[in-house]
UniProtKB/TrEMBL annotation:
<keyword id="KW-0732">Signal</keyword>
<dbReference type="Pfam" id="PF04784">
    <property type="entry name" value="DUF547"/>
</dbReference>
<protein>
    <recommendedName>
        <fullName>DUF547 domain-containing protein</fullName>
    </recommendedName>
</protein>
<feature type="domain" description="DUF547">
    <location>
        <begin position="89"/>
        <end position="203"/>
    </location>
</feature>
<dbReference type="InterPro" id="IPR006869">
    <property type="entry name" value="DUF547"/>
</dbReference>
<feature type="signal peptide">
    <location>
        <begin position="1"/>
        <end position="19"/>
    </location>
</feature>
Length: 271
């Protein structure tokens, strides 16, 4: 434990505390059925978000982990158990996307609740491997007989199948630097709208992108996942301009490179 703490401190000092896995398809999850119009019930997750997620005036949504009751913990557990009984391969692509996003976010909240109080999700050291931090590598779920981790959902399913950079704004890692946990559950019908709204909100918040003294500073997300945003500074800036509103839109005029990255790993709990 002491060695692990020393390694973690060293990584923080060197700025190498987090490296994103590449998108590598898990072929078994390619199966889908567009004739299936089944709509999954995400109401339990929707209700929990309504009770415990605060839409913060500062632009960062916070979850009241401390206030979650035993009954609501049981509701969350039941929701996750229900999702794990779904035959995902028989769903339509739209239903699958909402399924995986909600499963990822609800599982993340569950992990934080199980270890709360905690200053950062990086301190939840349950992933396998000496140099691993956080919960992302642990097989926390079992779906269609397959053991699945949070990393699997993000990097082996969502990213390689949908190839949509907006997914980075939908998945929440319980950190202040992360795009907001959305206040409602994703559904087959609402996902496109929610993805656009999430992208718009994050990019136009200082933790997403800001120009300071002519220098563009962006979230480290655009560094870790640069391959998803055009694989270059130019690609990242083009993506930002697509969603930028005044004053960011004006500030980006003439900007041709990213000068720095930033990220805040503190947990997105209520103060």
């Amino acid at each position: 434990m002491i060695l692990r703490s020393l390694i973690f401190a060293l990584l923080l000092l060197t700025g190498s505390v987090f490296a994103a896995p590449s998108a590598e398809l898990w072929p078994v999850w390619q199966a889908h059925d567009e004739s299936n119009q089944q709509a999954l019930d995400h109401q339990p997750w929707d209700e929990l978000l309504g009770r415990y997620l605060q839409i913060n005036e500062g632009g960062i949504n916070r979850f009241d982990y401390r206030a979650v009751t035993a009954a609501d913990r049981a509701q969350l557990k039941g929701y996750l158990q229900g999702l794990q009984q779904v035959t995902v391969s028989k769903l339509s692509r739209a239903a699958q996307r909402a399924y995986w996003i909600n499963l990822y976010n609800a599982t993340t909240v569950t992990v934080v609740l199980e270890h709360y109080p905690v200053e950062s999700i990086l301190n939840i050291d349950i992933s396998p491997g000496l140099f691993s931090n956080g919960p992302w590598g642990k097989k926390l779920l079992k779906i269609e007989g397959q053991e699945v981790s949070l990393d699997d959902i993000e990097h082996r399913i969502l990213r390689p199948i949908w190839r949509d950079p907006r997914l980075h704004y939908a998945l929440n890692c319980a950190s202040l630097g992360c795009p907001n946990l959305q206040p409602v559950a994703f559904t087959r019908e609402s996902s496109k709208r929610l993805l656009d709204a999430a992208a718009l909100a994050f990019i136009n918040h200082p933790r997403g992108a800001e120009v300071v003294d002519g220098k563009l500073v962006v979230s480290s997300i655009y560094d870790w996942f640069e391959a998803d945003f055009g694989d270059s500074d130019a690609g990242v800036i083009k993506h930002l301009r697509r969603y930028a509103q005044p004053p960011l839109k004006e500030a980006l005029r003439g900007v041709e490179e990213v000068d720095d990255h930033q990220y805040e790993w503190g947990v997105n709990a209520m103060r």
